[in-house]
Amino acid sequence: MHFRVQTDEMNYGLGMVTRAISPRPVKQVYDGVLIETVEEGLLLTCTDGEISIKATVNALVEEDGCALLPAKLFAELMRKQPVGEVEVKVDERMRAAIRSRGSNASMACMAAEDYPDIRDISGEYRAVLPCGRFRDAVSRVQFAVSTDESRKILTGILMEVYEKETLLVGLDGFRLALQRVPAENDVPKGLKEDHIQAVTPGKVLGEVSKMLPDTEEKCQITMNSSHIMFTFGSVKVYGTLLTGEFIDYHRILPDSWTTEALVTRGLFSDAIERCSLMAREGKNNLIYLNMKADSPMEMTANAERGDVHEEIDIGFQGNDLSIAFNSRYLTDIIHNIDCEQVRMCFNSSVSPCMILPLEGNAFTFLVLPVRIFNK
After folding, report:
1. What sign has the CA pseudo-torsion 261, 249, 200, 191?
2. At 332, phi and psi to the nearest 5?
3. Which of 40, 52, 57, 70 is nearest to 119 (CA)?
4. What long-range pairs does 337-341 form, CB within 8 A, spacing at least 24?
5. Res 77 pLDDT > 60
6. Mean pLDDT score across all residues of the chain
7. What is the set of domains in the chain, with CATH numbers?
8. pTM here?
């Protein structure tokens, strides 16, 4: 194999695919980057057995072939190359000679025949989303994904693909995050339901969201019964879907409430931050909210070292309410909202709080309160 490539092209491709490299690979070949010559130039592939990433790189190919090189070492070496063209030639002894302006290096190849065959996914289920909006939606549900491996299905993000929109849902048993992304999706006719759904590992979607550009460029999602593939630009990301029954979140979301507070996000966020400083010093990390008609919302936190008392003006209707939340849960939610005002909807001091936009249904957050026995 013999090719010439620009350093910026190769470094971009390596920066994409090496995200799939595990710090502790379960197989030696998973420590490598597979480089293959293709019609477009080069195809780079990395995998850890759970997530696989491919990227196409423009290059001048002088001799076809493939090589498996130590991914991190090769990527580091490429990053240190001077700007311009790099020549890579693999000889019959399976050693790669890497030459650029004033620099010569060599590297032993790994056994490419042991590398897994990662094929494109063919399936009838497809969704097409703007990269920037898809990236933002994933990042705003990621915090609510469970890390408890004993409930594997909740370590994933539920994707519901409808004809006109795609929903992303993450929940861990204490809070729920839902984001809607308007899109024109190819949903097969004659389905039992009016949508298709899949649960993608949070790790896979998290990596995808970090790679997606903040543009209106499209990301195509292809699914079958067991795998999913994301295609954007010159990059493809592959993952295995999680199996099992995801919690029916529709049954969790209340469709009516007895108390509603309209809050300004900035004021509420600042008050939460100040209360959280003291809440972290306490035993239970709690923030208390007290709401009454014709009065500001009172927010308090206390610990042995001191206490905080905040008052913020709100729009209020319904029954008076006192309720408490884990401060981290409130912080996570408010940091993932970008609109100026939100509605907080309650039914009692022990039932979930739902946080909604003032208009529309772009997002829904749900957080469980902490039962108050003795404040």
Report:
1. negative
2. -60, -40
3. 52
4. 337/265, 337/363, 337/365, 339/265, 340/264, 340/265, 340/266, 341/262, 341/263, 341/264, 341/265
5. yes
6. 93
7. 2-114 (3.10.150.10), 125-250 (3.10.150.10), 254-367 (3.10.150.10)
8. 0.90
